[in-house]
Amino acid sequence: MDTKDPTINKILETQLKEIYQKKYIKSEIQTIMQYPFRENQYIVTYNLELKDSYPIVRAKIVVDTETEELKLYDPGLL
């Protein structure tokens, strides 16, 4: 799937800004993969830069495009 998908990018950025507030600098999506057997959920691998913190590289999270929420990624559920 295209890493420039505007819907997923918008949801991820909006939710990360809400979580980290003033510490958020930027996020960059590396990969997007549809969650198996779930239509509106995608596993997103991303890099995250926060103020006064080391960069977080290749973090994974589940983006739900129906509810526009982030969900914890659990590799055991695949």
Describe the structure.
Helices cover 19% and strands 42% of the residues. It starts with 5 loop residues before the first helix and ends in a 7-residue tail after the last strand. The protein is an alpha+beta fold and 78 residues long. The chain is globular. Strand 1 and strand 2 (41-50) form a beta hairpin. It contains one helix and four strands.
Q: Notable features of this structure?
A:
78 residues, alpha+beta, 4-stranded antiparallel sheet, 4 strands
Mean pLDDT: 94
Q: SSE order, as H and E?
A: HEEEE
| Largest sheet, spatial ordering of strands | 1-2-3-4
The tally of strands reads 4
**Estimated radius of gyration:** 12 Å
Strand percentage lies at: 35-45%
Q: Overall 3D geometry?
A: globular
- Please give the alpha-carbon distance between the first and last residues: 18 Å
Largest sheet: 4 strands, antiparallel
Chain-wise SSE layout:
Blueprint: H1 6-20, E1 24-34, E2 41-50, E3 56-64, E4 69-71
Antiparallel strand pairs: 1-2, 2-3, 3-4
Task: Please summarize what this structure is.
19% of the residues lie in helices and 42% in strands. With 78 residues, it is an alpha+beta fold. A hairpin with a 5-residue loop joins strand 2 and strand 3 (56-64).
